[in-house]
Design brief:
93 residues; 4-stranded parallel beta sheet; 35% helix
Length: 93
């Protein structure tokens, strides 16, 4: 099933940012999303995810595991959370 475009975005597929430190999990998730018709950007940690946003990449959805906010990159995760929480910009799961 192909994702439906949001109003005003009929000309492109939705972009999903997959943030996952385990490479196998990240690869399988990203490939599954691509097969479903999504464009996927991958990041191994919060710092890489924040860099994606800083570069101006338009992201519609952030997909990450619940443990992402813990650990040595927690300050970077706070920055990512700020990007994700921008009103009306994207969803996070």
């Amino acid at each position: 099933m192909s994702p439906k475009a949001a109003p005003g975005r009929e000309d492109r597929h939705h972009v999903v940012l997959v943030v996952e430190d385990e490479i196998l999990m990240r690869s399988v998730t990203a490939e599954s999303l691509r097969i479903a018709g999504y464009n996927v950007v991958e990041a191994a940690n919060a710092a890489e995810a924040v860099a994606v946003f800083t570069a101006g990449t338009v992201i519609d959805l952030v997909f990450s595991d619940i443990n992402f906010m813990a650990g040595p990159n927690s300050m970077d995760a706070v920055g990512l959370a700020r990007w994700v929480s921008r009103p009306g910009k994207m969803a996070a799961i």
